[in-house]
Amino acid sequence: MQTAGVRRLSIGSSLVRTIYGQLLSPAQLLQAGQVSELLNTPFTYAGANQYFRD
To answer: With a threshold of 0.90, does the pTM exceed it?
Structure first.
């Protein structure tokens, strides 16, 4: 994008809307009593630690 002359990229409220969407989805699962769906995630603390370590 720099080679095309782009100096700044504005995402507006897109990031916040994405985060809210990711937050509301598990909340709806909890409300529906579908706790097992929340436990079925690829997230691991070891993976998160590795991400922030690099």
So the answer is: no
Q: Where are the alpha helices (DSSP H) in the chain?
A: 14-31, 35-39, 45-53
41 phi/psi in degrees, rounded to 5 = -135, 150
Cα gap 8→14, rounded to integer Å: 15
CA 34 to chain centre: 20
Distances in Å between the alpha carbon of 24 and those of 4, 20, 28, 29, 50? 37, 6, 6, 9, 26
Sign of CA dihedral 30, 43, 10, 4: negative
